Amino acid sequence: MKQLTSAQVRQMYLDFFKEKEHDILESAPLIPQDDPTLLWINSGVATMKQYFDGSVVPKNRRITSSQKSIRTNDIENVGRTARHHTLFEMLGNFSVGDYFKKEAIAWAWELLTSPKWYALDPEKLYMTVYPKDPDAKKYWLEVGVKEDHIYELEDNFWDIGEGPSGPDSEIFYDRGQAMNDVAEDDPENFPGGENERYLEIWNIVFSEFNHKPDGTYEPLPHKNIDTGMGLERVVSLFQNAPTNFETDLFMPMIQATEELSGQKYGEKPELDISFKVIADHARAVTFAIGDGAIPSNEGRGYVIRRLIRRAVMHGQKLGIDQAFLYKLVPVVGKVMQSAYPEVMENAEYIEKVIHMEEDRFNDTLKDGLELLNNLIAETKEAGLTELPGKPAFKLYDTYGFPFELTEEYAEDEGMTVDKAGFDMEMQKQKDRARAARSDAKSMGVQNGLLTDITTESEYVGYAELTCDGILKDIIVDNELVDHVATGMAQVIFDKTPFYAEMGGQVADKGLIKDQDGDVVAAVEDVQHAPNGQNMHTIKVLKPMTQGQTYHLVVDQKFHDKVRKNHTATHLLDQALHDVLGEHSHQAGSLVEPTYLRFDFTNLGSVTKEQLAEIERIVNEKIWANMPVETIVTDLETAKEMGAIALFADKYGDTVRVVKAGDYSMEFCGGNHVDNTNEIGLFKIVSESGVGAGVRRIEAVTSQEAYNFLEERNQLLKDTASELKVVQIKEVPRKVEQLQAQIKELEQQKQALEDKFASQQANDVFKNVQEIAGMTLIAAQVKVSGMSQLRQLADQWKTKELSDVLVLATVTDDDKVNLITAVSPAGIKAGLKAGDLIKAIAPHVGGGGGGRPDLAQAGGKNPAGIQEALQAAATWMEK
């Protein structure tokens, strides 16, 4: 067998299919674009939904890629099995309505067995096929596969619900019984069974049916091929590795961890798990953060946080007691440099994010250990030997403690953990996550009508906003017609000045006139048809006929406002780079006529000073009268020029580069002003967070910017009038004076309240009840809130006035505050403030909790205060 590096395996796959006239598609970012059904890109085909459901027809119907992907549904298995990973690469070749089973099978066999390519031994290759797919079996036999190397399995049907589906054929490599984990006569010892002998290396899906919403299947208008070969798996073959981890994709990280820990991989099985987890998670978080994800408590940010914390915990098992994971980022970058040079380019930023998260977790870890120790102590006090599952899950979910770690701590204390209760809480979390996920379909049903429309249509809106166009296609209710009298329709012209929504810029609006100048339709929206034509959604006012020439007129005022805002987004994008750093990149945008919205990645919020500097720079560039020019060139030349490209966008051989003076240069297919001075004025309206590591700026330009500033100016004038100051510039000073007065009055009020509370305390503390051999002080007092209740509790504690204290007050907003306290003697007798507050708080319509010595609660029912105080006495009697 050939000895190949991972880089060689990847490149050989892509080169092979390039020879078969496939376009090589660069790996897309891990963060899906415009796909709410996915948290991560989780397969090669996930980046090609628009091709497979027919909403877009690719330039070349033959595509190949090596797509980085993340799956975290079985994260607990990582490190414990030979081939589970969070991040992996999926090699794939795809046909969108071009070749089908015969070619896909023949090429798979050629790549795998040809001496020029992978040169695997044909005798070691086995295939599984769907029993009702005789063609697949026939084509495998035709290329030379022996009949006893082909297995028919009912599971060989790929179906993810509504949309394209079909039978598939899986390819296995026989690694020999010596590599197996089941006996020779085990019923699972066959290709496709649960064993380590027959390694699945490739799956070819023959996508030939539409799975319809009603559950039935119908033939696809255009049949597709979708294949997936796990790079990590196939590399393990060429490097004769017992698992995926003993390959050049993981060993450098494992070796670096050996140096950091002083431990040796391969010496202790329990430590080997930790080495594998760290290597796997280091790869995943490095790529995810490089693609714009940021650790947080929700969505994909939560996944990143969890991976980092799992790696840190496994580092501790190896004896690493300080931040270390960030040090593996350049190791990952070097391993993947041939295919992903951007990792090394962004290494400093990625290291910074991981290091910050490690430090944050180390602080959290101390709190978690304290919680765990308290849980163990409380469980022992209750005479139990099993830690409950709910708090064990909290340790896992909030503090990052793996369940196994909690079990280990419990075992040290001679205790167990309620695994069933833990699993129940875990399932609740999964259910919540599933409910929060969009119910949008993962892939739409293929629309053969739109896919088959190949009419040529030219967009002329860069140069002119009116033109004559021949009406080529009319679609009404998803049917092609040659005439429409009234109502809604979709139409395509041979030529149009209407911009189709793309790149964040909204579509043009306007009118369609006949040759007599009469308005026959209003253009309400324009989108790209599957084959790229500008497809107009129109409201038909007078009859329109296919083949007739019409006069198309864009709403110029609407269009001019949009292009001013679009150019402003380019200036804003570059200003963000200048002020925040190169790590900041675009995460989405919207260009409307009345405002612009720009999403970008950043570790934290943008300060007021940074926002002011960003705004200053953009306006400076507007007033610099910079010419805005468009350069049409090839993709490589544009990249060499330094134009900013969006990773998520797909570019053809010819691209448009929009250049604003010497300041900004970006790939862009949108409309722009001729000179920055046309924008007039730029004003940021708001800055906010919209997700983990993603911020949003909303801004206005031109007339809307003037109107915004004028409104603020009027507000200042009105404020000056209310404050009775002559000039606006005196407003800040007057406000400072008023704030100082308010602060002084609040201090005086607080002093009076404290004095009044102390006076009440003298009366309240005299009323001591004796109950069941213990003493209780329970009373309602008139104080401002919880802060003063705590002050009274501190006085009670210092003077040792009783065993139990219960105080209640009603706040200014008619809410109830309750506090309970128990003396050391009371705690020793088995009384706990936390238990007491839980028993009495329901009487005031609330709830709370706390420590054995002090607890507090809030409620909504002041009328129940006396019942709550009486309930305290009843509780003590028990």
From TrEMBL:
<feature type="binding site">
    <location>
        <position position="570"/>
    </location>
    <ligand>
        <name>Zn(2+)</name>
    </ligand>
</feature>
<dbReference type="Pfam" id="PF01411">
    <property type="entry name" value="tRNA-synt_2c"/>
</dbReference>
<dbReference type="GO" id="GO:0005829">
    <property type="term" value="C:cytosol"/>
</dbReference>
<dbReference type="InterPro" id="IPR045864">
    <property type="entry name" value="aa-tRNA-synth_II/BPL/LPL"/>
</dbReference>
<feature type="domain" description="Alanyl-transfer RNA synthetases family profile">
    <location>
        <begin position="4"/>
        <end position="711"/>
    </location>
</feature>
<keyword id="KW-0175">Coiled coil</keyword>
<dbReference type="InterPro" id="IPR018164">
    <property type="entry name" value="Ala-tRNA-synth_IIc_N"/>
</dbReference>
<dbReference type="InterPro" id="IPR012947">
    <property type="entry name" value="tRNA_SAD"/>
</dbReference>
<dbReference type="GO" id="GO:0140096">
    <property type="term" value="F:catalytic activity, acting on a protein"/>
</dbReference>
<dbReference type="InterPro" id="IPR018165">
    <property type="entry name" value="Ala-tRNA-synth_IIc_core"/>
</dbReference>
<dbReference type="InterPro" id="IPR002318">
    <property type="entry name" value="Ala-tRNA-lgiase_IIc"/>
</dbReference>
<dbReference type="InterPro" id="IPR009000">
    <property type="entry name" value="Transl_B-barrel_sf"/>
</dbReference>
<dbReference type="InterPro" id="IPR018163">
    <property type="entry name" value="Thr/Ala-tRNA-synth_IIc_edit"/>
</dbReference>
<keyword id="KW-0547">Nucleotide-binding</keyword>
<feature type="binding site">
    <location>
        <position position="566"/>
    </location>
    <ligand>
        <name>Zn(2+)</name>
    </ligand>
</feature>
<dbReference type="GO" id="GO:0002161">
    <property type="term" value="F:aminoacyl-tRNA deacylase activity"/>
</dbReference>
<keyword id="KW-0436">Ligase</keyword>
<dbReference type="GO" id="GO:0005524">
    <property type="term" value="F:ATP binding"/>
</dbReference>
<keyword id="KW-0479">Metal-binding</keyword>
<keyword id="KW-0694">RNA-binding</keyword>
<dbReference type="InterPro" id="IPR023033">
    <property type="entry name" value="Ala_tRNA_ligase_euk/bac"/>
</dbReference>
<keyword id="KW-0963">Cytoplasm</keyword>
<dbReference type="InterPro" id="IPR018162">
    <property type="entry name" value="Ala-tRNA-ligase_IIc_anticod-bd"/>
</dbReference>
<comment type="similarity">
    <text>Belongs to the class-II aminoacyl-tRNA synthetase family.</text>
</comment>
<dbReference type="InterPro" id="IPR050058">
    <property type="entry name" value="Ala-tRNA_ligase"/>
</dbReference>
<keyword id="KW-0820">tRNA-binding</keyword>
<keyword id="KW-0030">Aminoacyl-tRNA synthetase</keyword>
<feature type="coiled-coil region">
    <location>
        <begin position="728"/>
        <end position="762"/>
    </location>
</feature>
<dbReference type="Pfam" id="PF02272">
    <property type="entry name" value="DHHA1"/>
</dbReference>
<dbReference type="GO" id="GO:0008270">
    <property type="term" value="F:zinc ion binding"/>
</dbReference>
<dbReference type="InterPro" id="IPR003156">
    <property type="entry name" value="DHHA1_dom"/>
</dbReference>
<comment type="function">
    <text>Catalyzes the attachment of alanine to tRNA(Ala) in a two-step reaction: alanine is first activated by ATP to form Ala-AMP and then transferred to the acceptor end of tRNA(Ala). Also edits incorrectly charged Ser-tRNA(Ala) and Gly-tRNA(Ala) via its editing domain.</text>
</comment>
<keyword id="KW-0862">Zinc</keyword>
<feature type="binding site">
    <location>
        <position position="668"/>
    </location>
    <ligand>
        <name>Zn(2+)</name>
    </ligand>
</feature>
<feature type="binding site">
    <location>
        <position position="672"/>
    </location>
    <ligand>
        <name>Zn(2+)</name>
    </ligand>
</feature>
<dbReference type="GO" id="GO:0016740">
    <property type="term" value="F:transferase activity"/>
</dbReference>
<dbReference type="GO" id="GO:0000049">
    <property type="term" value="F:tRNA binding"/>
</dbReference>
<dbReference type="GO" id="GO:0006419">
    <property type="term" value="P:alanyl-tRNA aminoacylation"/>
</dbReference>
<dbReference type="GO" id="GO:0004813">
    <property type="term" value="F:alanine-tRNA ligase activity"/>
</dbReference>
<dbReference type="Pfam" id="PF07973">
    <property type="entry name" value="tRNA_SAD"/>
</dbReference>
<keyword id="KW-0648">Protein biosynthesis</keyword>
<keyword id="KW-0067">ATP-binding</keyword>
